[in-house]
Amino acid sequence: MYVCLCKGVSDRQIRQSVDDGARSWRQVQNETGCATQCGKCACVGKQIMRDAVREAMVADVESLAYAV
């Protein structure tokens, strides 16, 4: 789904940014351009980023648990 119509940023692009290592909203903005024009999408974009970061952290913890 498109999150930022001004820059054409989708939720998948935000999640990919997190998968590529972004852990802050500023990093996601720099990589995707989301919410850098009118800003109306910032709340939704931040929530998608938070969810993606949370999922990435859980996956990291689970992979550590299996490694031990």
Walkthrough of the structure:
- With 68 residues, this protein is mainly alpha-helical.
- Helix content is 63%, strand content 7%.
- It is built from three helices and two strands, in the order E-E-H-H-H.
- A two-stranded antiparallel sheet has the order 1-2.
- Strand 1 and strand 2 form a beta hairpin.
- Helix 1 runs parallel beside helix 3.
- 26% of the residues are buried.
- The mean pLDDT is 94.
Subunit organisation of the chains? single chain
Globular, elongated, flat, extended or rod-shaped: what is the shape? Answer: elongated
- Report the sheet with the most strands, covering strand number, pairing sense and barrel closure: 2 strands, antiparallel
Overall structural class, as computed from helix and strand content, comes to: mainly alpha
Q: What portion of residues is helical? A: 55-70%
Largest sheet strand order: 1-2
Mean pLDDT: 94
Structure summary, number of beta strands? 2
Contiguous helical run count:
3
Tell me the strand percentage band.
5-15%
Distance between the termini: 38 Å
Radius of gyration: 13 Å
Low-confidence stretches: none
| Topology as a string of helices (H) and strands (E) | EEHHH
